Amino acid sequence: MAAAAAPGGRAGGSGWTWRPVACDALLARAFHSSTELGGRFYLVGGLLAGGATAPSSDTVLFDPAGAQAVRLGAQGSAPRSHHDAAPVDGRWLCIVGGWDGSRRLAAVAALDTERGAWEEWKAAPGNCPPAGLSSHTCTRLSDRELLVAGREGGVRTQRRYGNIYALKLDPGARTYCYKEEGCRTSSRSGHSAALIQTPGPHPGHQLLLFGGCNSAEPEVAGQWSHGKIKEQPPVAPHLTEQLARLVSSGKGARQGPRGLRHHSCSVVGPFVVLFGGESLTRARDTICNDLYIYDTRKSPSLWFHFPSADRGLKRVGHRTCLWNDQLYLLGGFGEDGRTASPQVCSLDLFI
Known about the structure:
Elements: E1 9-11, E2 14-23, E3 33-37, E4 40-44, E5 59-63, E6 68-72, E7 84-88, E8 92-99, E9 104-112, E10 117-120, E11 122-123, E12 137-140, E13 145-152, E14 160-170, E15 175-180, E16 192-197, E17 205-210, E18 219-224, H1 237-248, E19 260-261, E20 264-268, E21 271-275, E22 278-279, E23 291-295, E24 302-306, E25 319-323, E26 326-330, E27 343-350
Parallel strand pairs: 11-15
Antiparallel strand pairs: 1-2, 2-27, 3-4, 4-5, 5-6, 7-8, 8-9, 9-10, 12-13, 13-14, 14-15, 16-17, 17-18, 19-22, 20-21, 21-23, 23-24, 25-26, 26-27
């Protein structure tokens, strides 16, 4: 169900908003995963209402071309929230870690999208998993390797951790294997991760972590020389051009948002787009509706902040997905921190 766009933020003669493109109660959830695979968004698990202790076990498919949502009738799904997900081999959707209502998990479950069935993959020999994962990030380095960063601690302590794990996947054997990396980052959870190209004549790659702790600076969790990373992000030439024009209307800063967590993060060309989340630095009105753009085209990279006056855009525990040159916003709790949004929105930029 389409609706008129509400005003978002403006800088000079430019502005932005999230324009609703669909609305369905099946989509109302937060702290879920949302992954594009084969031109469809797979929304897995999450919390259906604020204060809920039992995560959802369902999987919803959203077709952005037809603006339709359906519940997937796959057998074998388990309740999960605060997990992360990654597509593998164009066929499997791998769910890594998460909260099942009683404990934090490190196991990997996979949805075989060809068969429409869930599989519990087994730990391979030599597997050295973390104690449990939630509010972590899981970034594709290749079709066989993910990098897992950060996590919350035990149920009683609620500490955060800076562990980094390489996670090797073998779809043929239906196995996974964790190996802890030698480097660590600042302790964090509820953060986001972005794999970006470094500028220069022979660009390499960096994995940057944003938020999840009190720091305002992104932290490098991995660095690779030219040609080491084969992963290719989706191409979005029109949206990239629009973002370039939007940042040209603002004033860049070296420092980004401090203490932001449970926000969304998507890489669009040389830009990292962060939206919403919860501020650790505020005592009240903690849920945000700000758009941040991190511009990596030159060194040092610069932050651009585009606030919004529309309180209806406040979101936490939501996701963004890039598809067909558009950035989509899915789910999340609104301003009250309890009511899940049933809308799918597309980022509109007015230049």
